[in-house]
Design goal:
binds S-adenosylmethionine; alpha/beta; 19% strand; 313 residues; globular; binds iron/sulfur cluster
């Protein structure tokens, strides 16, 4: 599947819910999401149908995200349906890790290949304050459970928050020392609730290179610049949507939990997929991929009105 700018689109990020067990201060308002009617959100059958159609169109990788995918009822059935698809190279999931302790083995058995777990701080009090309800120990237990279940190369996502967690960059990076984790630092994007954050919250990923001078560039992994320090088992990744535009290499489309295809994270353009089946659904997915803009205009602010929890990150 190609777009009009010479890019091959083979990565679908499928949001399975806009609900979440946390209320991260940069992602959701404290009072959470306005709960939608059950029928406004794609059913497991519809999600599977979209994934199947996308793979027929040439998608090779699907990431399940949200909101929090592990609070979605039927998530394991969806994983099994998607994993059974010929042509799907990788099924991954981004999770806050709160329920990983109890679900990691089931996710592995359902065919999930790899996990991204969000982890912005290693301090229990700070974790509670940032997520407004989470317990760091749950996530750490979840990471152990994931390793015990056989997950390898787990990616840990840390959003860089100036004045909040920048004093922990070295400590977070050190998680890649004895484990095969890829610890990825992500520049905060001005979307949803954090669009109004003060300037000092938005840190360039250069702060990571300053905090861990031993890091040496070892290559790229998708949109991440990869680094390793001598003696590290794992890697450190920098994801720089703000300080470097990686739109030229963008190979992804997104589908929101209410069934709208977003050709670009930072645009309000959306194509409805609900009610479409078979060839009509494939045509809509191809049209969505073709409609990808050449690049975002983040320097002027995000063009989407949705928060990250509604899109899937
Ligand atoms: N709930 C799951 C989680 O937290 O991993 C999946 C959904 S969450 C929206 C996906 C990722 O987006 C998380 O790693 C989160 O930290 C990141 N994120 C949310 N808001 C962001 C923002 N404004 N800028 C950069 N990353 C953001
Ligand atoms: Fe939930 Fe993930 Fe957003 Fe945090 S970042 S509120 S865990 S969706």
């Amino acid at each position: 599947m190609n777009d009009r700018h010479g890019r091959t689109i083979e990565y679908l990020r499928l949001s399975v819910t806009d609900l979440c067990s946390y209320r991260c201060a940069y992602c959701m308002a404290e009072d959470g999401v306005q709960k939608r009617a059950h029928e406004d959100i794609l059913s497991i059958e519809e999600l599977a149908e979209i994934g199947e159609a996308a793979v027929r169109c040439g998608v090779k990788k699907i990431r399940l995200t949200g909101g929090e995918p592990l609070v979605r009822r039927g998530i394991l059935t969806l994983c099994e349906r998607l994993r059974a698809l010929d042509g799907l190279r990788e099924l991954t999931m981004t999770t806050n890790g709160a329920k990983l302790g109890e679900m990691a083995a089931d996710l592995k058995a359902a065919g999930v290949d790899r996990l991204n777990v969000s982890l912005d701080t290693l301090r229990p009090e700070r974790f509670r304050a940032l997520t407004r309800r989470g317990e760091l120990s749950d996530v750490l237990r979840g990471l152990d459970a994931a390793a015990a279940a056989g997950f390898t190369h787990t990616k840990l996502n840390a959003v860089l928050l100036g004045g909040v967690n920048d004093d922990e960059i070295a400590g977070l990076a050190a998680l890649a020392k004895d484990n095969d984790y890829s610890v990825r630092f992500i520049e905060l994007m001005p979307m949803g609730v954090c669009a109004a954050f003060p300037k000092e919250r938005f840190l360039s990923a250069d702060a990571v290179l300053a905090a861990v001078p031993a890091l040496e560039r070892v290559g790229d992994d998708g949109v991440a610049e990869l680094y390793r320090a001598p003696g590290y088992r794992g890697t450190v990744g920098l994801i720089r949507p703000m300080s470097r535009c990686f739109c030229a290499g963008c190979d992804r489309i997104r589908v929101t939990a209410d069934g709208r295809l977003k050709p670009c994270l930072h645009s309000d353009a959306e194509l409805p997929l609900r009610g479409k089946h078979g060839a009509a659904l494939e045509d809509a997915i191809r049209a969505g991929a073709a409609a990808k803009p050449e690049r975002h205009q983040l320097s002027r602010g995000s063009g989407t009105r949705r928060g990250m929890f509604e899109i899937g990150g």
